[in-house]
TrEMBL record, chains A, B, C, D:
CDD domains: ThyX. This is Flavin-dependent thymidylate synthase. The active site is at 223 (involved in ionization of n3 of dump, leading to its activation). The keyword Repeat does not apply. Catalyzes the reductive methylation of 2'-deoxyuridine-5'-monophosphate (dUMP) to 2'-deoxythymidine-5'-monophosphate (dTMP) while utilizing 5,10-methylenetetrahydrofolate (mTHF) as the methyl donor, and NADPH and FADH(2) as the reductant. The keyword NADP applies. It catalyses: dUMP + (6R)-5,10-methylene-5,6,7,8-tetrahydrofolate + NADPH + H(+) = dTMP + (6S)-5,6,7,8-tetrahydrofolate + NADP(+). InterPro entries: Thymidylate_synthase_ThyX, Thymidylate_synthase_ThyX_sf. Its cofactor is FAD. GO terms for biological process: dTMP biosynthetic process; dTTP biosynthetic process; methylation. Belongs to the thymidylate synthase ThyX family. GO terms for molecular function: flavin adenine dinucleotide binding; NADPH binding; thymidylate synthase (FAD) activity; thymidylate synthase activity. It comes from Acetobacter peroxydans.
Length: 302, 302, 302, 302
């Protein structure tokens, strides 16, 4: 992560203005507020603001007048019930806002989640920094042979080093040219909105991103998944830590009913019933394709 | 407004749990937090939570690291610029949550605003209170003759009293029957989800409603309008007061560029140019329909 | 269902204007177009327009230039894959529009699905017909004792008849008063937007409702569920027939991977693994609550 | 535009499957169906499907049973009324789907419109073509000095040629390296999802993009604007032609009430009233900033 002195000072100053509030407040999340969580080589994730807590979900579900006087265990049970039965609207009652620094190709995946608000740093208006993502050698992997959109074996050290040289070389060259295109004295004074088209997709951008708790969990469910690209998954993993700090009961229910849950199709259910009745079912007689059969067996092994 | 003692106590207790926070905090809105603002005969509006302030809009627009060190006048100028040019995304960075008690027919108009989250009190699950909206005599108006969806003259006192009797009588009778349908001992023990279908549309319901600042202003622009039905407009008017307390710079820009602004069509613009050139334009030669002509003249008079 | 002669004639005329088109066309759905499918005592559902077919989903998923030359079995396999892995965006590429006549209390549940477009008949602008929903005796049920938002036993015939009298009596009276409030000569000439507040929630309204295939299936998954209120479930059941006529491969995948699928929580999965390993697991030692245990056992029995 | 023979054949075949339909059909749009409209150097826009026409808007606004028997002039008047008063829901009842080939930096602006469905060609799954956007000399402009996010003077021919060389050189090199990274035999067999991060932002991508008529007009209003970047504006201009072919009455109303309309702020309105009263108002005494004053004068000149 590469913050300038000035940026660190701004963040530090911001994190010292304490106010009194009657709003629900979460000390564990206050402790994380504004602090950058490092992701990838130059990226970060910072919680900028939040609204609501576990209690706010319960309060909305009950449409109650006060904070509620129920016991903690009752609240947790209600949250589990809501999560289990996919009653999503009470979870929409909490909101969180992040400042994220991320490579453009990650931003392009991320933005596909439409139920969020975004303010991105504008390269039409401003000049980008010379920062681009370069994979660490251990994440430099060959195309998967079984999964058309996945990674397979890690590259041999020598190959990884050569790939790194290519990526770094191209990023440096295109960025250098970007600066030359922009430069009004030594270069061409080209409009920013045009010069930026020369940058590579691993260039870092940043944005403010805000969503509600329901949509945050939907994002997490999709992006923590092992099939998600590594470079977005690491952001999701940091956000999952934020989730546990912010709304611990909801996070526990999320682990139980969403992340750790398994869905079986109608045919899988009939296979399962046969297995539980003692039958030894084989794929050929299961009604499942080879791929679905394998997925089912993997789920049952855990 | 009819809050029970218990409800008042819950609200009072809720309003005394002070916490420390590093989040942006707005004292003028904190002072209103949880307190019911009375609307109509039994309705209310309460601010339950909020996220962000005027500064948060500026911060998001600039994608800045800290709170920003610019002057207040610069911030106000940026907010005015954003509002004027309909850059809506920075306003989406603030969020507010209300608890609202409102007649069902108002709820049906309100819910048409989809960019919001809602948790409504469930009449499948719970039993509604015997509360229904009855218009005050001065709002008891005849069908407008010029506007098919508006009100005209106020009814004469005698007629208004008779209408009130009819509305009250029907609401009392249907509610009494609702109770009889539900009653397991003296009545029929009918399922709640069925019994409620007997209630009239002026019965009060309540919900938690949460939206972002951009969509709140869109709601206000439509519902403060004199063409909005009186019974929803009074809620919008209370919300406008909340807007001014919460984000005074944004509220000022809203008054200047949205609420007080006038849009002229292409043809109106050509009429306007002729007028400014000294020509005396008449409707017949204006290219405008009679209705549009009248609207334009009304706007110019102010 | 109560259509006037004039309405029937309008529908019939509409259904005879044949055009040539290059767009994907589904004969089975064309055969249903404009025809009212009866629902409840006076309600209906009509398909007014549609866009796309099974092939359009495949085409979008492949971002292809033409209609695609793949075999039908390959297309079906891709659709199954997309459904199984919750790749929802290709399903958003199909769209359908309905004209629905439905009781207001059903409309209030329905509108909670925000990812749709709605144009409702306006009772501010027009006068409603004297039509209201009355449950058939076999759907007149007592409050459930196990499910706070459900129905239990059917009422005894005598009680059902009495309940019906109450509901009918109140609806007739409030509608009669509605007419009297509106009547400019014999009544009060009250504004329509006010008079309507006297109507009961079982009064019929109607709307045009349009959504995409992904959101249609989401609606169906929630509203076909046995826990949905009967009066909205019957609409969902008619829509499911439309789904099968329109996109048969997608509908088959929906039955397999959504409607017939079962999701087990993390704890349920560990119980399942123990059971498959031959252990006799009891609820007390399962880590599941009684309710979750029962739900799991019910799923395993099918 | 660079379509392969195979792609042209697929498009041609697609455009010959004529069906009969009872749905509203627009001959002028049928004539454009599937045909690529060229945009920029390698981009295009193709209408893939549509739903509804001008009549469908009127039908939804009236919630009518048939196609409606009103006169064309009445329909046009209603459409004008709906547009003028921002009654947007009837316009949501029409839908259109495009296949678009566009540079990635344009795609990044475009995707900010969230009220649409998108299926993009996946560079995780497939390999991109060697196609990138290079501005024509007449669009190669210097940074604007008055508008921080705009273009100023066109570059001198020699400078434009040099800039072109830089952009072309970098795009060719990074694409060559992309191929080398991917190549399993002569290169590194790097995973596609990683190799693509080396591409520049002017690389072409493509997607299926679907939205409703209301949101299409919102997109057009923002992207046809002279302040929009040239490279997205040219797509909007082609879409505007599609709009006129598809829904001519709506398109005419759009030109009159949206594109050709001008909005004056509260302060501008007071200035206007003074001017119409014969006063010679100067900026200093207007209450307007210099920039707003200039904007107002420009609007009045037309």
């Amino acid at each position: 992560m590469s913050l300038t002195e000035e940026q660190r000072a701004e963040i530090a100053a911001h994190g010292q203005e304490v106010s009194s509030t009657l709003r629900p407040t979460v000390p564990a999340l206050e402790a994380m507020l504004y602090q950058p969580l490092e992701v990838l080589d130059h990226g970060f994730l910072r919680v900028i603001d939040y609204m609501g807590d576990d209690g706010a979900i319960v309060q909305a579900a009950r449409v109650s007048y006060g904070r509620g006087t129920r016991k903690v265990t009752e609240d947790a049970a209600l949250i589990r019930y809501l999560m289990r039965h996919r009653h999503s609207s009470p979870f929409e009652m909490c909101e969180i806002k992040f400042h994220v620094k991320l490579p453009i190709f990650v931003a392009r995946q991320w933005i596909r989640h439409r139920m969020a608000s975004v303010n991105e740093y504008s390269a039409r208006y401003s000049i980008l920094d010379n920062e681009f993502y370069l994979p660490a050698p251990e994440h430099m992997a060959a195309q998967s042979e079984v999964n058309r959109q996945g990674r397979g074996e890690t590259l041999a050290p020598q190959a990884a080093a050569e790939v790194l040289d290519i990526l770094r070389g191209d990023a440096l060259r295109t960025f250098g040219d970007y600066e030359r295109l922009l430069d009004e004295k030594e270069g061409y004074g080209l409009a920013r909105e045009l010069a930026r088209i020369n940058l590579t997709l691993n260039t870092y951008t940043q944005w403010y991103w805000k969503t509600d708790l329901h949509n945050l969990m939907h994002f997490l469910a999709l992006r923590i998944d092992p099939h998600a690209q590594y470079e977005i998954r690491v952001y999701a993993e940091e956000m999952l830590k934020v989730l546990h700090a912010w709304v611990p009961q909801t996070a526990a229910a999320f682990e139980e009913y969403r992340r750790g849950a398994v869905t079986f199709s109608a045919t899988m259910m009939s296979v399962l019933r046969r297995m539980l009745a003692g039958e030894v079912v084989e794929q050929a007689a299961s009604g499942l394709s080879r791929r679905e059969w394998d997925e089912m067996q993997a789920s049952l092994k855990g």
